[in-house]
Amino acid sequence: MSRVMTDEERYQAEIAEEERKLRWLIRRQPTTLELRYYLVFLLIVHRRYADAAKECEQIRTMHPEHVMARVWLGRVERERCSVHRCDLSRGRKPSRRSPWRHTH
């Protein structure tokens, strides 16, 4: 008897498959910035800030003059800190808020 996947499990499986495909493409075209930035965005949206930061650092290593990697890395660090700090101040686990909320 096979177990039926929940919506959350199916969603997580789709995300994992998307990441796997992106990493496969990146291995074959390592200098393609668009693929790397798409992976960074995918990781940020799914709150995998450490992985997103690592990808930004790899971009900066390959293309030190590329400013967008530094901008994205700063955004990743701010989001990771603000979500963690805000939730800890309320005595809760980090929430599932969107990392793209409007801030000024």
Q: What is the number of E strands?
A: 0
Please give the CATH architecture. Alpha Horseshoe
Strand content: under 5%
Distance between the termini: 53 Å
> H/E series, N to C?
HHHH
Q: List the domain count as a whole number.
A: 1
Mean pLDDT: 81
The total count of helices amounts to: 4
Name the CATH homologous superfamily.
Tetratricopeptide repeat domain
Radius of gyration, whole Å: 16 Å
Description of the structure:
The chain has 104 residues and is mostly helical. The protein has a single domain (7-89), classed as Alpha Horseshoe (Serine Threonine Protein Phosphatase 5, Tetratricopeptide repeat). It contains four helices and no strands. It has helices at 7-28, 33-45, 49-62, 67-89. α3 (49-62) packs antiparallel against α4. The longest helix has 23 residues, at 67-89. The model is unreliable at 98-104 (pLDDT under 50).
